[in-house]
Amino acid sequence: MRLSDIAKLAGVSKATVSRAFSHPELLQKETLDRVMAIARFHNYHPNTLARAVAHRRSGLVGFIMFHKSRPFFGHLFYGPALDGFMERAKARGYHVLLGATTRRNDNFEENFIKDSIEGAVLVTRDPEYLVNTFRDRNIPVVLINEESGQENIGCVVGDDYGGMTKIMDHLIGERGYQDIAFCSNRLSHVCNMQRYLAYVDALIKYDQRPYVNPDLPEYDLLDSYEPNFHVLSRYGRKEIPNFGTPIIFSSADTETAAKSMAKLLPLKKMPRAIVCMNDSIAIGVCQALKQAGYRIPEDVAVTGFDDIEMASYVSPALTTIRVDPYDLGAEAMDLLLKYINDPALPSERICVPNELIVRQSS
Amino acid sequence: MRLSDIAKLAGVSKATVSRAFSHPELLQKETLDRVMAIARFHNYHPNTLARAVAHRRSGLVGFIMFHKSRPFFGHLFYGPALDGFMERAKARGYHVLLGATTRRNDNFEENFIKDSIEGAVLVTRDPEYLVNTFRDRNIPVVLINEESGQENIGCVVGDDYGGMTKIMDHLIGERGYQDIAFCSNRLSHVCNMQRYLAYVDALIKYDQRPYVNPDLPEYDLLDSYEPNFHVLSRYGRKEIPNFGTPIIFSSADTETAAKSMAKLLPLKKMPRAIVCMNDSIAIGVCQALKQAGYRIPEDVAVTGFDDIEMASYVSPALTTIRVDPYDLGAEAMDLLLKYINDPALPSERICVPNELIVRQSS
DNA sequence: TTGTATGCGTTATCAT
DNA sequence: ATGATAACGCATACAA
User: What pairing do the DSSP bridges indicate for beta strands B119-124 and A301-303?
Assistant: First the structure.
């Protein structure tokens, strides 16, 4: 069943049937009813693809993840972000197409961009590569939790610097802790970098000395990535400060954190508090500390970041920063829409506020 | 830039340019190289939408959730299932379109099916409604964790009955527990129903008496849904057995479970073990029990189901059944592909095996 | 208010 | 190996 079939059956032109579905207000009620009745009887529905071709508008936006490994959409943070993105897209009349890959050469071109998406939200730690790929196709993009130095690129980020500042204000200003260590995976990601900068700046602000432990191994803070100078300069810096001895793990998951931390313990010089890059790391660190007989927070306080669901269920429940990934996703869709409607829009950065959640671990 | 533009620039016909991209082997190497060079120079890419119209094949499949509320794709189980579905779809040359809604009348027609998807995977507790909607459009569907009594409907389910049997074998056969209570949300969902049936059957098998507590309130096991007779009959039953006094909560999340359980405590007659419908409920039950001073598992053993990430981090870590949602999603895509290629295929049920994970809570 | 004619960007059939 | 032409299913400018 297609448009022309219904037209014949109803004894009208194709244009009339087309109008019945696209601009019903243009038709006489009588004609409209007759056409729609016949269409309904024959279970006819307009073909969206053909419509899209005629309109030169697909109504599709992409949510694309470029990660090292799974989970993609099952990710504790980006899964809910996808929810927000999708619901907002639906509200704006768009559909969401998924993309995910682990490798650059995974036929990225072939697998994802060959679709006629009108725009895309990108989750990646290597933004420039993707941004260029999409720019070649004139497809506007918005980054989530990343920033590009290029023009016409939107981004939606949580307030990492502000969040970590809240944690430090809590630990130092309210609790009076000293000897506060920083524990993270590599700082190559701008979110990580900004959280670290806030940690450093807070210590400076409170006139505290950094946690220094000569027994700790030497880490490569950046995993041989270049820092994002564009973001660094926002904080008046030209490089990531060499400050104390942060504890760096090879990845950001709980298991790695637990194992790596366990190997380090016991430290000759224990910190009084350990500020972790995110909740997953914090939970792993807590496991290792408890295993080694340390009490939390009596011996060592620990803090996380993100407020993943687990953060409230572990024991002790984690002091952390609540970032609502749903909001991030929703904001990303709205920003993307602005770029779809005006591709020449200058780069815009939307910073989503967050909230300190004080629980038992500090 | 479109096909015809490249054709003019290259001095060839449209057909030749089309072949250059679709069937390059049909062209002389010389012609091919020239056309492709020009296309590349002008950054031309074929329009997927127009291609799809001409092919009468969109290359799109849908992943559609019909839930009461969020999270949709951020769901601890269905998020990872989406990962599996998407990766498999990619491997099969398909793209994934998202759909989610909470209400029937949420313009379901308008918002989701108007796309030319070739098939869809459905996550819902009200399968017949959705199945009918898609059948009207001749779009094949596969259900995840649900079963339909209709023809030509595939489904992929975890082995709920087998999993719960493993838990009961463990509790009774290995640990020797008696007075084992069942704790769940309503049984309207077939997964829940089958887990409950396995619980009942295990007690019968071991010649144990059901846990009966006259103080417990009366619950509506089914939430006024009809049971799925089609599935019941597989276990030689015509209705859900009235067996002991299961503890029923209004929903399946941790918070509800914790609050509802707390209200019930202390029970005059405590069970020796509480078999919970899933991990979220089990975690909530554990919280309430610990709060009330019970030791787990010394006073009461507790078990979960699903092995969500949290299950291994709570204290005590949860004995549960590991179901890999990724596998479920991947299997669903492959089954869907069979229905896309042969819509007349009879209903097929794929049962994904699971695994008992014994931890500290039992 | 409705019909005619043309266009959207591609593929496929049948020539040559 | 390449070209001409029809087809895919629908939208819209213009005419009536």
Answer: unpaired
- Measure the CA–CA gap between B332 and B329, rounded to whole angstroms: 5
Q: Which of B140, B98, B103, B115 is nearest to B335 (CA)?
A: B140
Give the tokens for residue B302: 């507790």
Q: C5 C1' – A15 CA distance, angstroms? A: 11
- CA-based angle B342:B344:B345, to the nearest 5? 75
B50 beta carbon to strand D: under 7 Å: yes
Question: What domains does chain A contain, in order, with CATH numbers?
Answer: 3-46 (1.10.260.40), 57-157+325-352 (3.40.50.2300), 160-322 (3.40.50.2300)
Helix axes A3-10, A29-41, angle to 10 degrees: 120
Distance between CA atoms of B289 and B53, rounded to whole angstroms?
Answer: 60
Instruction: Report the protein residue whose CA lies nearest the C1' of nucleotide D5.
Output: B15
Phi, psi angle pair for B319, to nearest 5°: -75, 130
Can you give the pTM of this predicted structure? 0.91
Other Cβ atoms less than 10 A from the Cβ of B206: the count is 14
Residue whose structure tokens are 């002389």: B28
Distance in angstroms: CA B16, C1' C14: 15
Q: Which of A202, A193, A262 has the alpha carbon at shortest distance from A233? A: A193
**Selected residue of B42, B47, B49 to mutate for chain A interface (largest A Cβ count, 10 A):** B49
Give the integer Cα–Cα distance in Å for B230 and B238: 9
Pairwise pLDDT comparison (A335 vs A308), residue with the higher score: A335
Beta-sheet pairing, B320-322 with B355-357: antiparallel
- Answer yes or no: is A42 CB < 7 A from strand D: no
List the beta strands (DSSP E) in B40-193.
Answer: 60-66, 95-101, 119-124, 141-144, 154-158, 180-185
Q: What whole-number distance in Å separates Cα of residue B169 and Cα of residue B356? A: 10
Q: Point out the nucleotide closest to A49 (alpha carbon to C1′).
A: D9
Best mutation site among A48, A135, A312 for testing chain B: the one with the most B CBs within 10 Å?
Answer: A48
**What beta strand segments (E) does A67-212 contain?**
95-101, 119-124, 141-144, 154-158, 180-185
3-state class (DSSP) for residue A180? strand
| Residues A260-300 pLDDT 10s | 999 999 999 999 999 999 999 999 999 999 999 999 999 99
Q: Which of A208, A156, A175, A183 is nearest to A354 (CA)?
A: A156
Q: Which residues of chain B have pLDDT under 70?
A: 103-114
Question: Per-residue pLDDT tens for A4-17?
Answer: 999 999 999 999 99
Across A329-341, average pLDDT? 97
Sign of CA dihedral A151, A152, A153, A154: positive
